[in-house]
Amino acid sequence: IRRWSNIPFITVPLSRAHGKSFAHRSELKHAKRIVVKLGSAVVTRGDECGLALGRLASIVEQVSMLQNQGREMMIVTSGAVAFGKQRLRHEILLSQSVRQALHSGQSQLKDMAIPVLEARACAAAGQSGLMALYEAMFTQYSICAAQILVTNLDFHDEQKRRNLNGTLHELLRMNIVPIINTNDAVVPPPEPNSDLQGVNVISVKDNDSLAARLAVEMKTDLLIVLSDVEGLFDSPPGSDDAKLIDIFYPGDQQSVTFGTKSRVGMGGMEAKVKAALWALQGGTSVVIANGTHPKISGHVITDIVEGKKVGTFFSEVKPAGPTVEQQGEMARAGGRTLAALQPEQRAEIIYRLADLLTDQRDEILLANKKDLEEAENKGRLALPLLKRLSLSTSKLNSLAIGLRQIAASSQDSVGRVIRRTRIAKDLDLEQVTVPIGVLLVIFESRPDCLPQVSALAIASGNGLLLKGGKEAAHSNQILHHLTQEALSIHGVKDAVQLVNTREEVEDLCRLDKLIDLIIPRGSSQLVRNIQKAAKGIPVMGHSEGICHVYVDTDASVEKVTRIIRDSKCEYPAACNALETLLIHRDLLRTPLFDQIIDMLRVEQVKIHAGPRFASYLTFSPSEVKSLRTEYGDLECCIEVVDSVQEAVEHIHKYGSSHTDVIITENEKTAEFFLQHVDSACVFWNASTRFSDGYRFGLGAEVGISTSRIHARGPVGIEGLLTTKWLLRGDNHVVSDFSEQGTMKYLHESLPLPQRNTN
């Protein structure tokens, strides 16, 4: 805890030797000294007369939050000219209206013209008001601000430089936020572009160059430049092919075309890039981002400091491999080539991958052993996750069998005709299956997921981006290498990409122009986070697996304990494991009920009592905190219901629409349950654990979906396909089918082509 003026605030551990900029966005959270440069377009309103008070208040709030974390914040601000222009216009209008009212009468007021205002005069009139506004806003967060006006001479005169440096250091030491601006009241007009020629030469002709000079002079860790564009684009923003550059490296400026400067202010994007590169050479990291967008401006500064993918990050360290954006484009191009292959060729790739899993077994297990040893040494994984991380010979053999099933069943998956209609004479319509596009599959601690999902993507002709957990890095690397080796036999190696960059999951979920579907494989928390972070990209999956087993009055004694034991104890961490056991009230205090309880005790299952069940007991187990709980361990809830109807209602209220089971010998009761429970999988006298793509005969699954659109339940090849319509005509036009036309609609259903069932 640090204190200033008796006000405590939390500090974060921040320290690094200055002299080298951060290499990756993820390191920005370690930045201690930060300069935030506010461009004129950020600070001023659209009419250029007055300040954007809402944006300014949000920026002050973010800067205050970071300052109160123990960081040293400085602001380089524009806005004095705009604020002064507003004040001077008001004064001129007021004085003109008084004079004209006295000499010419009211009828002349409408003819008043406001003279062109000189910028230096506007700056002189606006500086004090702008600073007063900053002071009032920072006061709300118990932070003091101080104004510093500088000119180019202050940096070229050695004594003035030392004075400025000393003043800024003293202000930072006292937890004061310096607010710096060029002294536009006395600054000369800008000269032609003669600065920024080297590390030791930079003149202050606008606030971009001022911010860069100040950042290097003060050995700042991070310079954030806020403007009215999202960042740096590879061509002028707004042009058809313009793409936001995520990371910009020195030397890349030759491939960039610069557009015009912003609507207000002295510097355009070219000036910002030059200033940013100068600061980068001086050891300061730089991010250029949008400070005006209403959806992101409220957290743009804190997002940048947290390492989120916002704007353009300037880095001197170029990664060895492609960026995730490039990988997405490669996956799309590779996926389209993959979809154009013959079905036999796609199947051949999957058969080859299955063979490689067994042929290269020793190398795979060696890589997996490294992951297990690292995870155990760091102690970061719980026992259930370690089990998921572990590969074995039997697991690899099962994987190979599943892949061969996928290959055998994929012969007519892509391009299958599912509907044929004769619209009119010589005008035939077909609906055919096609790949979805590019899939992003994010998985935790499950290296066996990689070949399964890859095989399903190959069979369905989809491009694939894979993001695995770092705890399985070695295993994922070799499995991806084998996948690409199999793809290479038909020249589609790029169709499956493994994301190895430091991309955060939240950043990946924003790539809506590259990704068509996100499939999370992992904990319920992971799925919820992805569903929350996905912006414009559909997410296939389930956030919870709250599976129920209902034991009816007509249940078989022999079947009950077997099904419950398998559902709960066979693999309690699975999403299809039993979490809530519903017991018909008439079964309480019967031998069958006692057998169930005894079996759960023998299996060391911790029992939580539902409210109704607890009311029947004198000494009950711990009462459940929520009936909507996924335990993921040897724990379950027991609750009592009066009928199958009440069991269905309980499932609909507290379940997650995943998998629900009835145990009964009464066929009528069973059919009622099967028809009325609205879940992805509903079973009669079978374990919940059958809810699995491999056990369903799908070969494997990309996950289990509880959504009601597209795929539901275990998702295999069919769930990774969509459709398109093919219309074949012969000089047909819609006007021929009007009342005066010569043609009529037939809409005849045509037989489908014979499916290949081999």
UniProtKB/TrEMBL annotation:
One Pfam short name: AA_kinase
UniProt KW Amino-acid biosynthesis keyword: yes
GO molecular function terms listed in the Swiss-Prot or TrEMBL record: ATP binding; glutamate 5-kinase activity; glutamate-5-semialdehyde dehydrogenase activity
Record pathway: Amino-acid biosynthesis; L-proline biosynthesis; L-glutamate 5-semialdehyde from L-glutamate: step 2/2; Amino-acid biosynthesis; L-proline biosynthesis; L-glutamate 5-semialdehyde from L-glutamate: step 1/2
Gene3D superfamilies with a match to the protein in the record: Acetylglutamate kinase-like (3.40.1160.10), Aldehyde Dehydrogenase, Chain A, domain 1 (3.40.605.10), Aldehyde Dehydrogenase, Chain A, domain 2 (3.40.309.10)
Catalytic reaction annotation: L-glutamate 5-semialdehyde + phosphate + NADP(+) = L-glutamyl 5-phosphate + NADPH + H(+); L-glutamate + ATP = L-glutamyl 5-phosphate + ADP
Keywords from the named record: Amino-acid biosynthesis, ATP-binding, Kinase, Mitochondrion, Multifunctional enzyme, NADP, Nucleotide-binding, Oxidoreductase, Proline biosynthesis, Transferase
A biological process term (GO) from this entry: L-proline biosynthetic process
Predominant location category: mitochondrion
Task of the protein: Bifunctional enzyme that converts glutamate to glutamate 5-semialdehyde, an intermediate in the biosynthesis of proline, ornithine and arginine.
Assembly, per entry: Can form homodimers/multimers.
Family, per entry: In the N-terminal section; belongs to the glutamate 5-kinase family. In the C-terminal section; belongs to the gamma-glutamyl phosphate reductase family.
Protein name, per record: Delta-1-pyrroline-5-carboxylate synthase
